[in-house]
Structure formats: C-alpha cells, structure tokens
Amino acid sequence: MLADLARYVLGFFNEYPYGAPFLVLLLCGLGLPLPEEVTLIGSGVFLHRGNIDFWTITAVCSAAILLGDSVPYWLGRKFGMRALRWRLLRRVVHPERFAKLEARFKEHGKWAVFACRFFAGIRIPGYFLAGTMRMSYVQFLVLDALGIALSVPISIWLGKVFGENVDELKNRVHDLHLILAFLVVALALVMIVRSRRRAAVGSGVDKDPPAELGR
Q1: Is residue 210 in a domain?
Q2: What is the pLDDT of residues 159-209, one digit of tens each?
Q3: Is residue 112 part of a domain?
Q4: Is residue 213 part of a domain?
Q5: 57 DSSP assignment
Q6: pTM surpassing 0.90?
Q7: Between the CA of residue 71 and those of 6, 12, 30, 40, what are the distances in Å?
Q8: pLDDT digits (tens, 9 = 90+) for 82-112
C-alpha cells in the first residue's frame, strides 16, 4: 500500500512538476503535517532527472511557501488570540508553545521570524504570533523571504545530489527503485524534524500577546 501511494505521488509530480510542489508547499503552510523539506528534496530529484528548471522550481516553491506562511500571519493579525477559539486552528497553532515563542521574540526581536524558518515545529505558531504582535507585513515578508532564500535552493540542490547518487547506485544494483530511495529520505526527514522539535520546543503556559513589534 505504501509503495502504491508513493507511485501515485510520484506520478502526480511527474504530471505536474511545478503545480504539484506548489500545491503541497502551500498546504504545508496551512497545517499539512509534512516537512517542507520532503517536497523540496523531491523537487531536487526531479531536477536531476531533467523534468524541471532549477530557477523556475526555486521560484515556484518560494512563492508557495511565502503564500502559505502569510495565512497564519494574517489570521493572527486580524483576529489575534480570538482565533484560537477555533478548534482546528488550535490543533495547528499549538497555543501551549506561545510562552517559549514569546520569550524568543523578546530576546531576538523581529529576527525570530527568520529563525522560525529553520524549525518546522514552530513555523506556523511563530508566524501566527508575529501577526498577533502586529509586525509590519512588509517586515514579515522580508525576514521570511531571507530564510526561504537560504533553505529552498539548498534543499533542492541536496535533492539533485541525492538523485545523482541514486542513479549511480542503480547502475550497480539493478533492482533499486527511486521510490524506495524517496521513501527513505522522507522517513528520515520526518524523524529528524520530530527529534529537533522535541529538543527545541517545550510546552509553556499561555500568556497574553506582548506589545507590538512595530509597524
């Protein structure tokens, strides 16, 4: 069943090499429980196979991530903590993490938004908190874009390198299939992100949002 699902996903990416990553990354910003790196590295594998152009896929993935990140920001900016009354949003935003996030925002200021890009477990809560603190949207976009400019091209490039290694292995082991390699990488990334999340983010006590960061 897992192999069938992988074939379906890969077929979807083959048919829509730009649209599929855009859609998945946008859904990640809305709470899809999948590390963005899985899609980015998968795009790098397809880049190695010659299905896509590096700069085009980088721009597509970056735009999707920016749009997805903007959703929790605007929910926080428009509704504030009242939005946490929505059960679905509480499951995604995890309000119990706000205490630690608030401490990081107080310590690092606006650059905490930049740091959130590199910790999957706190991205959505961090961007929501930035909205509740009424950070300027332009500032939010600039800081988020800086993080994306680092993480997206590197992740895609790693996927390309991984694809080259897979092809080299396939020349030696004829029954090695790309699907298996893709699943191994996806599973490893999920385990790494979960381990990092447990180490970096502890539970906290809900507090009222701090003063505005600035307009």
Answers
A1: no
A2: 888 877 766 655 554 444 445 555 555 666 666 666 666 666 554 444 444
A3: yes
A4: no
A5: H
A6: no
A7: 29, 25, 7, 20
A8: 777 766 666 666 656 666 677 677 776 677 7
Q: Extract the tokens encoding 101.
A: 């996030």
Enclosing domain of residue 119: 2-199
What gap in Å lies between CA 40 and CA 51, rounded to an integer?
14
pLDDT interval class at 131 (50, 70, 90):
confident
> Three-state SS string across the chain, please?
CHHHHHHHHHHHHHHCCCHHHHHHHHHHHCCCCCCHHHHHHHHHHHHHCCCCCHHHHHHHHHHHHHHHHHHHHHHHHHHHHHHHHCHHHHHHHCHHHHHHHHHHHHHHCCHHHHHHCCCHHHHHHHHHHHHHCCCCHHHHHHHHHHHHHHHHHHHHHHHHHHHHHHHHHHHHCCCCCHHHHHHHHHHHHHHHHHHHHHHHCCCCCCCCCCCCCCC
Which residue type sits at 132?
A: T
Instruction: Please indicate, yes or no, if residue 51 is contained in any of the structural domains.
Output: yes
Number of structural domains (the chain) is 1
